[in-house]
Amino acid sequence: MRVFLGLLVLVMALAGCAQAPAATTTGGNAPAAAPTAPAAATGPLVMAWYPNESGADLKDARDAFGTLISDTLGRPVEHRTTTDYIIAIESVANNNAHLAWFGAEGYVQANERNSSVIPLVIPSGSNGSVESAVYYSWLAVPRGEEDQYRDGDGFSIENIQGKRFSFVSNSSTSGFRVPSSNIVTYFGEKPEWQNLETEDLLEGGPNNFFADVQFGGSHQGSAVNLITDRVDVAAFCDSCVDNYVSLVEGTENQVGAVYRVNDDADEPFNQFPGAEFVLIAAVPVLNAPFVANSSMLTAEEIQKLQAVLTSDEVANNDKIFATQAVIDAGFRPFFRKTDAERFLVVPDSFFDPIRAMR
């Protein structure tokens, strides 16, 4: 578990450093540095979405963001839903989309392809700060199979070698980059795996690290791979399955926690009510940024978006940060309001820990 604790220290250390640039802005709402952009346009603004956020159950959540952006910039918004991470990333990097919501790995990949892709805002942690702006990368196993991963009073990833394994996408932060980096670091200390590399985790077989490797295409898809016994262990994140599962034993986002699929879960979980899984690893990950293509938006437009998104009005908008009452009424959100959640501006360097894993 020292790998996981090390990552947490790194996340918190960087978060503390990231506050300084934000604090020098007026109200924390000034735009990130951006290349010179063209004059403001009035045509449709395209927003790309990962497969995780492209489902029909999240249409109202997408529309809530579309309305907010449209009202701010006076331009209609077109939602570009996708079935593949790369499609979403390339649409922004290739100047075919103005905005997107990516994981840190997706942002880093898009920024490498096109330096005009910049972070717009990230959601804060529950206390409204950048220090707590993390979600969790899980490794989960079916309930009833967890004993083979026990290590004393806790759990270990020691026995995942040789198992059937599911990632999300090799462009996913919490569904690939973080878990693969931790696996390589952990097993690389063992003589028989000292030359293990991330690429060795992409395919399964008799001579490979895993017996079989599958990619779910989304966090929901990776979780379904586990629930349907296609794999023994799966990587996916807490926030992407939050609308479909509930904690039934243990502590949220802690090793040993047991989650169960809700009886009224939407697709693709609607066929598996009551299915349960156990966490054998839970690692904090830097919160996912909304990103902007600064060659397609003016500096003024970016500044307007950041000012509105970081406002108290948006922090209290129950279709952006949904209250429990709104959720109970049937709304499926991207973000939940548990305390003081809001959006924050961070610099590009905030995502350097993800770059360091690559």
UniProtKB/TrEMBL annotation:
Q: What start-end ranges are recorded for coiled-coil regions in this protein? A: none
> What name goes with this protein?
PhnD/SsuA/transferrin family substrate-binding protein
Please verify whether the record's keywords include Iron.
no
Matching entries from Pfam families are given as:
Phosphonate-bd (PF12974)
Signal sequence span per UniProt?
Answer: 1-22
What are the UniProt keywords, alphabetically?
Answer: Signal
